[in-house]
Amino acid sequence: MEQSGATTLLQGAVQDVASDVVSALRGGDHVRVSGTEAVDGHGGSLAFAAVRVLGADLLLPHVLFRTPPVPETLTVFRETVEAFPPRADAAPTVLWSHWAMSRTLRRFDSPQSGPPPTGPPGTDATAEPDARWLDEATWQVLTHQLAVLAPLAVPGGDCAVARAARRRTVDVARGFVRAVRRRDWQQAAGAGRWLTLLEDVPDALGLEAGLDFVELMGGTDPRVALQAQAARVIRAAGALV
User: What are the structural domain ranges in the chain?
Assistant: First the structure.
């Protein structure tokens, strides 16, 4: 029961932080992270755990609008990156999530902040993890993994995962439709965000209307709204280029 209670608290914290990001994406405001309640007796906090779940998307409004984050938010982000380095045998999505956070941190951090965070032991934190497994994945698995790695879907954010997505636009589109049919709104929203960045997306997909539908059906889930709003901002930025 204690673990279940901690899980419920964490889920609530993730929802709260995601709501803050959505608000910033809609209004161009700064993201602020609140909540420092301890998750366990070792100095952990709901804020750090929630930021770890959201990953690089915590600072997404500042990446898209090219605004500096407030120092308090950047500090929480930096401390989260430093506190949760992945193990060498971590899953590929964990390695890529940490890499995305480290890349985002280097974008905003100052030289006075000290050395950059490290990756798994014995690795270069700036080096990209392996992404060849995406080329071999079925289109269903590909869509699921890309949705998990949606924080990597940013304009100009070239990396091996983004290149793999660009090579398989039709597969991602198929995965988007499948996720909608399965009512997996988080996966559909994440896939839709990727499709906003990809070329040669089939017109018959109706991506814009599809994302509106996904957000509507996602109800009060701010993680779905985050991906849908990110896609809108990315699309709008592309239209202005």
Answer: 1-125, 130-241
Tens of pLDDT, residues 34-59: 554 444 443 347 888 899 999 999 99
SS (H, E, C) the chain: CHHHHHHHHHHHHHHHHHHHHHHHHHHCCCCCCCCCCCCCCCCCCHHHHHHHHHHHHHHHHHHHHCCCCCHHHHHHHHHHHHHCCCCCCCCHHHHHHHHHHHHHHHHHCCHHHCCCCCCCCCCCCCCCCCCHHHHHCCHHHHHHHHHHCHHHCCCCCCCHHHHHHHCCHHHHHHHHHHHHHCCCHHHHHHHHHHHHHCCCCCHHHCHHHHHHHHHHHCCCCHHHHHHHHHHHHHHHHHHHC
CA dist., res. 138 & res. 144, Å (int): 10
How confident is the model at residue 3, as a pLDDT? 55
pLDDT tens for 65-101 read: 999 999 999 999 999 999 889 998 999 999 999 999 9
